[in-house]
């Protein structure tokens, strides 16, 4: 099925399910998981056969280019490593499961398996994992005409009629439901030791504008420039009229300590009930093939951990959505630096020794980035900008060097990571906020800072900067990286 070129957005509605409906849905999700794993297993077989062929080895040795890509495409079709070939593979399975899984849903499951396997084919990943029991969290159809579909407030799927819950004062949902529905997805989440089911309606168009208490549309400040200096745990925002220096996803930190304590408890319990599964040095003994034994307390704590991680995920997304709306209210011409957060997550490969002769830690920012998810904030901003036919302006980090540039002297000065302030003699400016200010005044070529624009806006920036620093000083606690 060709990818739709029209804009889309998602409306999520809670499903009111009876116990018998939940049992049926649980069964269908597991059948969908079986189809997914079968597709993945078949793709592994076909890929292994492809890699053993002589023609594939010859093509691999060719120079990269259009000719090489064309030959790879021919080989993929020949060995069945294409999406529509997998749709043919699932047909016999779907016929046996037609009372529960319709044709369109089975094809979308196959497409999902193929998209996951593409990461391995195109060397963007090392392995594609099979889904374990209970790990299938969503199924979807292809259109709103057959299979999983929405009609008159209900989601219909092979005899199941699932009522959606829309509150009377939910104006946003009522306006959104007037748009054309492209397809419907049924999603489930593990909440308080049970699965809760939702309908995600993928609608054509852009989300309705929300209204505030005064009846005015909430929206961004059009045609104003904004610079964003995003870090691993904090973000600095500078606009023509205001600045913000804040922690990324602050509500996540409130649960982080509880999660760590439960994880330690789980590890102790597992080691106590499975002493033969570990070596003397504490690592897992892979030669021991006995089944793992888990205590009742372990299973209870594991369920609690799962709930805390879900809450963390919800709070993180909610914090990012609120912050993105705040940023868009300042302006819609947004400048950010290109950053590789995956690179910051990786451990250092080389082993180094410090002055005292001790080994330096190889850890970098893996846990912080996983908790704060800075790239998620940029993705949300990118999505919301698309609704108004705009996108993020990604500045060339290597050429601009916002953290080193001084617009007053027009020079570059390297700074240590723990230097959090720029001393200009007559004033001190917080480093991250100054970087955001420079990014806001970047030229349209995204390769250099507009010095004249910096000089023109500096006094206004300086006044709002001082107000923001005073606000932060009144807070009980700020991240060390802010330097406040």
What does this structure look like?
With 484 residues, this protein is of the alpha+beta class. It folds into two domains: 8-204, no CATH class; 225-248 and 303-482, no CATH class. The protein has 14 helices and 16 strands. The protein has a seven-stranded antiparallel β-sheet with strand order 2-6-7-1-5-4-3. A five-stranded mixed β-sheet has the order 10-9-8-11-12. A hairpin with a 3-residue loop joins strand 8 (225-230) and strand 9. Helix 2 (54-60) runs antiparallel to helix 3 (66-78). The radius of gyration is 27 Å and the shape is globular. The model has no long low-confidence stretch (mean pLDDT 88). It comes from Mesobacillus persicus. This is Transposase.
List the strand order in the largest sheet. 2-6-7-1-5-4-3
Protein structure class: alpha+beta
Low-confidence segments:
none
> What gross morphology would you assign?
globular
Over the alpha carbons, how many angstroms does the gyration radius reach?
27 Å
Could you state the order of secondary-structure elements as H and E? EHHHHHEEEEHEEEEEHHEHHHEHEEEEHH
Summed up, the helix count is 14
Largest sheet: 7 strands, antiparallel
Percent of sequence in beta strands = 15-25%
* Number of spatially distinct domains: 2
Approximate helicity band: 40-55%
Q: End-to-end span in angstroms?
A: 54 Å
Number of strands: 16
- What integer is the average pLDDT? 88
Protein name: Transposase
């Amino acid at each position: 099925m060709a990818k739709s070129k029209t804009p889309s957005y998602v409306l999520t509605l809670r499903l009111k399910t009876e116990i018998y409906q939940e049992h049926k849905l649980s069964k269908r999700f597991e059948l969908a998981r079986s189809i997914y794993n079968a597709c993945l297993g078949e793709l592994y077989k076909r890929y292994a056969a492809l890699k053993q062929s002589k023609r594939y080895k010859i093509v691999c040795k060719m120079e990269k280019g259009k000719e090489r890509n064309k030959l790879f495409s021919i080989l993929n079709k020949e060995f069945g490593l294409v999406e529509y070939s997998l749709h043919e593979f699932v047909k016999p399975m779907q016929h046996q499961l037609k009372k529960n899984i319709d044709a369109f849903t089975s094809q979308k499951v196959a497409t999902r398996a193929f998209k996951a396997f593409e990461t391995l084919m195109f060397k963007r990943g090392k392995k594609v994992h099979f889904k374990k029991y209970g790990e299938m969290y969503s199924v979807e159809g292809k259109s709103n005409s057959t299979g999983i579909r929405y009609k008159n407030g209900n989601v219909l799927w092979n005899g199941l009629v699932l009522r959606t819950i829309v509150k009377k004062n939910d104006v946003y949902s009522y306006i959104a439901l007037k748009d054309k529905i492209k397809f419907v997805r049924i999603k489930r989440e593990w909440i308080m030791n049970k699965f809760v089911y939702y309908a995600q309606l993928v609608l054509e168009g852009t989300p309705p504008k929300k209204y505030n208490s005064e009846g005015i549309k909430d929206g961004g400040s059009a045609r104003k420039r904004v610079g964003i200096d995003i870090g691993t745990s904090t973000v600095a925002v500078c606009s023509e009229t205001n600045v913000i220096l804040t922690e990324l996803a602050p509500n996540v930190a409130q649960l982080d300590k509880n999660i760590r304590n439960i994880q330690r408890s789980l590890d102790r319990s597992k080691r106590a009930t499975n002493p033969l599964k570990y070596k003397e040095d504490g690592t897992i003994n892979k030669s021991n093939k006995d089944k793992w034994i888990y205590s009742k307390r372990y299973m209870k704590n594991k369920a609690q951990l799962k709930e805390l991680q879900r809450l963390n995920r919800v709070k993180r997304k909610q914090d990012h959505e609120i912050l993105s709306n705040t940023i868009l209210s300042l302006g819609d011409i947004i400048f950010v630096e290109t950053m590789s957060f995956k690179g910051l997550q990786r451990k250092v490969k080389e082993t180094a020794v410090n002055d005292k002769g001790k080994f330096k830690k190889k850890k970098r920012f893996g846990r912080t980035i996983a908790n704060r998810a800075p790239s998620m904030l940029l993705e949300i901003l990118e999505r919301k900008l698309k609704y108004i036919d705009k996108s993020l302006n990604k500045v060339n980090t290597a050429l601009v060097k916002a953290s080193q540039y001084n617009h007053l002297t027009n020079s570059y000065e390297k700074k240590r990571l723990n230097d959090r302030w720029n001393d200009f003699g007559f004033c001190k400016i917080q480093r991250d906020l100054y970087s955001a200010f420079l990014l806001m005044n970047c030229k349209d070529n995204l390769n250099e800072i507009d010095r004249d624009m910096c000089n023109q806006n500096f006094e206004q920036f300086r006044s709002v900067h001082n107000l923001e620093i005073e606000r932060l000083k009144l807070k009980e606690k700020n991240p060390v990286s802010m330097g406040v």
